[in-house]
Amino acid sequence: MSIAETDGTVRARAVDAVTAAKRGLTLALLGYGASIGLSVLAWLSITLIPLGIGALTTPPVMRWVRAYADHRRRLAKEWAGIAIPTAYAPPPAALRTGGEGMVDRTMALVRDPATWRDLRWLSVDVVAGSAVAVLAPGLLAEGVFGVLLLTGLWQPIVAASDGWWYGFVPVTGWATAAAAALLGCGWLALALRYNPALIRTHFRIVNAQLAPSAEQLLARRVEKLTETRRDAVDTSAAELRRIERDLHDGAQARLVAMGMDLSTIEMLLDTDPAKARALLAQARRNSVDALGELRDLVRGIHPPVLAERGLGDAVRALALRLPIATEVTVELPGRADAPVESAAYFAVSEVLTNAVKHADAELIRVDLHHADGSLRIAVTDDGRGGARVGAGSGLAGVERRLGTFDGVLAVSSPAGGPTMVTMEIPCVLS
Amino acid sequence: MRVVLAEDLFLLRDGLVRLLEAYGFEIAAAVESGPELTAALAELEPDVAVVDVRLPPTHTDEGLQCALRARRERPGLPVLVLSQHVEQLYARELLADGSGGVGYLLKDRVFDADQFVDAVRRVAAGGTAMDPQVIQQLLARREAAEPLAGLTPREREVLELMAQGRSNAAIAGQLVVTERAIAKHTSNIFSKLGLEVSDDDNRRVLAVLAHLDQGGRRAR
């Protein structure tokens, strides 16, 4: 290794160590401040539940605790690359209103193992987590201080006190100050070497406390699957009902009418050719209408372009049918499984329909690409914003549809726009 | 006039053969798959090909792809594409080379035999036949609406028929007015849209289609 390279590594290490020290300081301050504060509040609030007051305070306090824990999870991801899964139970579906609702919510929180995990983590963070974190800035500061002693800093300090120790070195003169500085260098070397590891250790502790057990994850997964399966079954049953009704009232009825017309025509052919001709025209019109209805129906079941060209071109074709200018960018190196393609297509279709109906947009952008094992779709419009999932919006349906494939939907739509709907479906391309 | 026909469903293929023969066309070949179509187009050099979009073996847009490939090898080879559904996306791909001699129609249009045969003849002669649904989709777009706002309802009607590829005479026939009246409408439309007037029917159609397809976006 050349000198320049060594120099480069040392500098990179130093930068890392200083960054780690700053992070350690932040984490320690958080631990000694927010963790203690929230821990006290949470325990106080839970203790007061039997008195009634706790039922009012626990939900907001636990909301803070969860936000705080989520913040730490984010830091774990950003600073140490540790992804800590969350497993909070979803809020109870049927809440009573008013005070009783608060009680329901509180009881749900108390029953959720994740709540107790959060509280346990808060306590551990105050003691172990912060201690580990504070070591990183501590080593660095102590080391720098030790080296500075050699600049003569030891003189005023020793003069002011009666027998002063730096670490295990009793500083009395230049010689011992030099020994202290050497020890300081040792601390610095340790900081350079271990500071980032200390931060990682902190987050490992966080992970050990916050991460749900395999059993809990599994239970959550089963709950989720049960829910999405029910949604999938409901949706497909509703779809089949719709198709049945459309066929029954539409194409089927028209074919019956055509058959009747044809037999009438047969009868009229000799007696009243003029009337027969008029009926023929009507029969033809009926056949055209029946075809049109079947075409619309087919498009609703599985769009022909999707079958012929795949998702990218199907979305392009869809965009061309919209009254609003729509730019489509597709970067898909292969095709996803047919069910995924179909779900993605209808999701995009619904989001686009929503945008056209409600957004009052000038331009819509659709971006489709595949990254990190997921199909990612973003639909952006420059309309008036204010789109929301739920409240009977089409977006809730899209979310349910994607749920069957473990897909997720996120909406960012501030009032005044722009609206961005992102969807992600885990899948492989072939 | 010699026709190569590609349609995988026997009933429809048979019906088309009978219809075209009844109108005096000679069926050079009636095939049922993409590879057969490619071979027939290369060997038989027909005056026009009538092709279903979806063909075996892939049952995707094989027919369209074969037609596009054949036109790349023999530019201007007249091709009329039939489908159960029409997509602007496909229309755009067919029109992309700008050489004319293309048609793109819903299969339902065959019900009106006179008009269908007229479309086949027009395509064979290097003209254009676009399905009314394609044109309506083009006109329905907001970006197209702005430049079209200045047209009178009658001019809009004429524009729609013109974009389908109809000649002045055919438009006049359909709207029951004189050909001269249509000529006046067309020149009005062209000046309102800022297009250059062309005596060549086909060039006129292509200009209108290109304008409808891209006009709004260029204006942005």
From TrEMBL, chain A:
<feature type="transmembrane region" description="Helical">
    <location>
        <begin position="174"/>
        <end position="194"/>
    </location>
</feature>
<protein>
    <recommendedName>
        <fullName>histidine kinase</fullName>
        <ecNumber>2.7.13.3</ecNumber>
    </recommendedName>
</protein>
<keyword id="KW-0808">Transferase</keyword>
<dbReference type="InterPro" id="IPR003594">
    <property type="entry name" value="HATPase_dom"/>
</dbReference>
<dbReference type="InterPro" id="IPR011712">
    <property type="entry name" value="Sig_transdc_His_kin_sub3_dim/P"/>
</dbReference>
<feature type="transmembrane region" description="Helical">
    <location>
        <begin position="32"/>
        <end position="56"/>
    </location>
</feature>
<keyword id="KW-0547">Nucleotide-binding</keyword>
<dbReference type="Pfam" id="PF02518">
    <property type="entry name" value="HATPase_c"/>
</dbReference>
<dbReference type="InterPro" id="IPR050482">
    <property type="entry name" value="Sensor_HK_TwoCompSys"/>
</dbReference>
<keyword id="KW-0067">ATP-binding</keyword>
<keyword id="KW-0812">Transmembrane</keyword>
<keyword id="KW-0472">Membrane</keyword>
<dbReference type="GO" id="GO:0000155">
    <property type="term" value="F:phosphorelay sensor kinase activity"/>
</dbReference>
<feature type="domain" description="Histidine kinase/HSP90-like ATPase">
    <location>
        <begin position="339"/>
        <end position="429"/>
    </location>
</feature>
<dbReference type="InterPro" id="IPR025828">
    <property type="entry name" value="Put_sensor_dom"/>
</dbReference>
<keyword id="KW-0418">Kinase</keyword>
<feature type="transmembrane region" description="Helical">
    <location>
        <begin position="126"/>
        <end position="154"/>
    </location>
</feature>
<dbReference type="Pfam" id="PF13796">
    <property type="entry name" value="Sensor"/>
</dbReference>
<dbReference type="GO" id="GO:0005524">
    <property type="term" value="F:ATP binding"/>
</dbReference>
<dbReference type="GO" id="GO:0016020">
    <property type="term" value="C:membrane"/>
</dbReference>
<dbReference type="InterPro" id="IPR036890">
    <property type="entry name" value="HATPase_C_sf"/>
</dbReference>
<keyword id="KW-1133">Transmembrane helix</keyword>
UniProtKB/TrEMBL annotation, chain B:
<keyword id="KW-0238">DNA-binding</keyword>
<dbReference type="InterPro" id="IPR011006">
    <property type="entry name" value="CheY-like_superfamily"/>
</dbReference>
<dbReference type="InterPro" id="IPR058245">
    <property type="entry name" value="NreC/VraR/RcsB-like_REC"/>
</dbReference>
<dbReference type="InterPro" id="IPR039420">
    <property type="entry name" value="WalR-like"/>
</dbReference>
<dbReference type="Pfam" id="PF00072">
    <property type="entry name" value="Response_reg"/>
</dbReference>
<dbReference type="GO" id="GO:0006355">
    <property type="term" value="P:regulation of DNA-templated transcription"/>
</dbReference>
<keyword id="KW-0805">Transcription regulation</keyword>
<dbReference type="Pfam" id="PF00196">
    <property type="entry name" value="GerE"/>
</dbReference>
<protein>
    <submittedName>
        <fullName>DNA-binding response regulator</fullName>
    </submittedName>
</protein>
<dbReference type="InterPro" id="IPR000792">
    <property type="entry name" value="Tscrpt_reg_LuxR_C"/>
</dbReference>
<keyword id="KW-0804">Transcription</keyword>
<feature type="modified residue" description="4-aspartylphosphate">
    <location>
        <position position="52"/>
    </location>
</feature>
<keyword id="KW-0597">Phosphoprotein</keyword>
<dbReference type="InterPro" id="IPR001789">
    <property type="entry name" value="Sig_transdc_resp-reg_receiver"/>
</dbReference>
<feature type="domain" description="Response regulatory">
    <location>
        <begin position="2"/>
        <end position="122"/>
    </location>
</feature>
<dbReference type="GO" id="GO:0000160">
    <property type="term" value="P:phosphorelay signal transduction system"/>
</dbReference>
<dbReference type="GO" id="GO:0003677">
    <property type="term" value="F:DNA binding"/>
</dbReference>
<feature type="domain" description="HTH luxR-type">
    <location>
        <begin position="144"/>
        <end position="214"/>
    </location>
</feature>
